[in-house]
Specification:
By secondary structure, this protein is of the alpha+beta class. Helix content is 30%, strand content 23%.
């Protein structure tokens, strides 16, 4: 593709064939093929509209299949899972938005379980070099789907990987990153005028897994008994619409783990089914999903494909109902901010505590402990702080979108909705997979999300310090204030 050449989206859509379950399919590039021409990443002068003098919003859309073909294992559940076929493809989908003065943002959504800091940094640096995007303008999100592939440097001790499998993970990750950049390039070279609208629906299959026993949930639901614990059943919906015409893209969220399935088949879990269903209902519309603060939420009951498809249809129905109601318009003004906050560990590891674990009977912890021991013996000094990413996009005076790294529990979303005057949405799986992010309440209660489980994420510690919520909330407040000061 020649420099500054733009993509005609109508011709692009017409060139697609119908894929599994009706989702548009783009040919998957072979991992053995040469990298694409770097000129594909050129998009003209950063921040300037291409071929339009429209004074409102503009949107660009890109998408690509990222289903593995090289034998990489599925991510999640801490065991070897070799993929046998697929229910449907997994995707990277990108929307780029531009306001009336040319300020841009790019959101990348994927059907992956988690992105490491390594992958985030490589993708951001590539986007910065190619398109001039700053950190505040670029947000990488992942659905936390457990039927997607392992990625480089994410949960490195979690799986019993050998050298061959690690090579396949690296190979797939490199291939995937090229697909992501191609989708970003497509979005940034294909601007269309649009109206930007938002609304909220509800969907009720998410269950607080800390306060409800999975085995008891089906009977409780059958008897109409109330479930326990905090939940966030809101379904945020952001829609880009041709002025007076059809929908170009629909971004929607939900706070729940995509862990309906635990078998060895490629699939997008319930978010994948929801996107497929919406793209069937609205042909020519790109449907994109982000996971809200679902760190302590599970789809229950689960473990069946029929349930997974049911939850996807429930979620797409909730989105559809919002699209068919009167949504609120967003004024075309973007104000952005990004920051890091240092999260403290409760205590760092040491050799005395690591050596019994390294020779113990728990394989995951033994792998982690042996890796930590090698680092210590090589002279590495661990930091007692971890840089945690916080991001805020203010859209007009109407909507505030917050991005947080890691698996935030639902308390964060509920808190921030109360603290800020605009309608506020929180993406709890943004930029990279830090670990579980407990609130103070969850930290005090302990358990899987709040207790000493940072070893599973490769940290040189077992637990966050008890002030984690205060640190994050303070950083979010400062980051949001920056958008207010400049907006």
């Amino acid at each position: 593709m020649k420099k500054n050449q733009t993509i005609d989206r109508r011709k692009f859509l017409q060139s697609l064939s119908t894929g599994t379950l009706g989702l548009a399919a783009i040919p998957v590039f072979s991992a053995e093929k040469s990298p694409p021409n770097p000129d594909i990443y050129a998009s003209g002068e950063p921040g300037k509209a291409v071929g339009s003098t429209h004074a409102g919003w503009q949107i660009g859309i890109g998408k690509s299949v990222i289903t593995p073909t090289n034998g990489v294992w599925l991510a999640g559940y801490g065991r070897k899972r070799v993929a046998y076929g697929k229910i449907h493809d997994i995707w990277v989908k990108v929307i780029a938005l531009k306001d009336a003065v040319g300020q841009r943002v790019v959101m990348v959504t994927t059907d992956h379980m988690g992105m490491s800091k390594t992958v985030y940094e490589r993708l951001f640096q590539a986007a910065n070099r190619a398109f001039g995007l700053e950190r505040s303008e670029f947000m990488l999100t992942f659905s936390h789907n457990h039927c997607g592939p392992c990625l480089e440097d994410d949960l490195v001790d979690y799986y019993p990987s050998d050298q061959r499998q690690r090579a396949r993970v690296a190979e797939y990750t490199s291939w995937m990153e090229k697909r992501v950049m191609e989708a970003v390039a497509e979005a940034l070279s294909n601007w269309q005028d649009c109206e930007l609208l938002f609304g909220e629906g509800t969907c009720t299959f998410a269950v607080n897994r800390r306060d409800n026993k999975e085995a008891e949930v089906p009977e409780m639901l059958a008897k109409g008994l109330p479930l326990k614990g905090a939940v966030d059943h809101y379904v945020p919906v952001l829609a880009a619409k041709v002025p007076g015409g059809h929908y170009l893209a629909v971004l929607f969220g939900y706070a729940c783990h995509p862990t309906t399935l635990d078998f060895s088949t490629w699939c997008g879990d319930y978010p994948g089914f929801a996107q497929i269903d919406l793209e069937k209902k609205y042909p020519g519309t790109a449907a994109l999903f982000f996971n809200a603060c679902g760190g302590d939420q599970n789809p229950l009951p689960r473990r069946k494909v029929e349930l997974c498809q049911k939850y996807g249809e429930m979620l797409s129905t909730a989105v559809d109902e919002v699209l068919r109601t009167r949504m609120q318009s967003i004024s075309p003004v973007l104000s952005l901010a990004f920051s890091y906050v240092d999260l403290a560990y409760e205590a760092l590891v040491d050799l005395e505590k690591l050596k019994p674990i390294a020779s113990g009977t728990r394989p995951l912890q033994a792998r982690w402990a042996n890796r930590m021991i090698k680092k210590i013996e090589a002279g590495e000094k661990f930091s007692d702080r971890y840089p945690f990413p916080v991001q805020a996009w203010k859209m007009g005076k109407e909507l505030l979108f917050i991005g947080m790294g890691g698996e935030a529990v639902v308390d964060y979303s509920l808190r921030f909705k109360q603290e800020f005057p605009q309608r506020t949405w929180v993406c709890g799986y943004a930029n990279y997979m830090a670990a579980y992010i407990p609130s103070r309440r969850v930290w005090e209660e302990g358990g899987y999300e709040g207790g000493p489980h940072l070893d599973e994420y490769g940290h040189p510690a077992w637990r966050w310090s008890g002030d984690i919520e205060d640190r994050i909330a303070g950083a979010v407040a400062k980051t949001v204030k920056q958008t207010q000061d400049t907006g």
